[in-house]
Design brief:
There is one protein chain. The chain is an alpha+beta fold. It is built from 10 helices and 4 strands. A hairpin with a 7-residue loop joins strand 1 and strand 2. It starts with 9 loop residues before the first strand and ends with a helix. The C terminus is likely disordered.
């Protein structure tokens, strides 16, 4: 499982909350914690300030309440708690899997479990509501998916296809066929109408 761990384990950057405009970078690697800052100010005393950096071991960071307070102030308490857990060796391996691999795992779950998983994080909510997931769900549910159904899914979405009964689906497909045929007839009839108008247009021009 250790092969799933990338380095850095976590990194984030951004500005401090107003009124400060200082910029910060925070990272947790496999061996230490990195804290960098850039002072952004119009004050003369700060114009020549150079970027700063602090590098500590995991244990030193866990003991450094002052740095923890800065991390919490800039990036929030949730980020602080997560990075402290990393420094304590509590790794979220599932969160480090690729989207394609997670999608394969999700497709083995019951629909009710997928709904629960989607509430656990922003990433899982995005995966569980994606068109890719619902397309796979439809294809697993049906033996075959016709080209007409796939075309309809591009308009209404695969999730709607999944929750639509076969009878309603047939009605929607029939309606699309009818609309397509009507559009073709209108397209064919347009040149005929233009041709009918040409003699009149020519006669009008002769009068002038």
């Amino acid at each position: 499982m250790s092969s799933l761990l990338t380095d850095p384990l976590f990194e984030i950057s951004g500005r401090a909350p107003p009124p400060s405009k200082n910029f910060y970078y925070f990272a947790v690697t496999k061996s230490d914690v990195i804290w960098r800052w850039w002072i952004i100010s119009i004050r003369t005393v700060d114009r020549n300030s150079k970027p700063g950096q602090l590098r500590e071991s995991h244990q030193d960071f866990l003991d450094d309440t002052e740095l923890q307070s800065e991390v919490s102030m800039v990036f929030g308490r949730q980020i602080l708690q997560y990075t402290k857990a990393l420094c304590q060796g509590h790794y979220d391996y599932l969160e480090r899997l690729s989207d394609s691999l997670l999608m394969q795992i999700i497709n083995y779950l019951q629909l009710e479990d997928v709904g629960q998983l989607g509430r656990t994080s922003h990433r899982f909510r995005k995966l569980c509501s994606s068109e890719e997931f619902w397309e796979q769900a439809v294809r697993q549910r049906c033996n075959t998916v016709s080209a007409e159904v796939a075309s309809l899914a591009l308009v209404v979405g695969w999730r709607n296809i999944f929750f639509t009964s076969k009878l309603q689906l047939q009605k929607l497909i029939s309606r699309r066929r009818l609309n397509t045929e009507e559009q073709r007839e209108e397209h064919v009839s347009d040149p005929d109408r233009k041709a009918e108008k040409l003699p009149n247009e020519n006669s009008d021009s002769d009068q002038f």
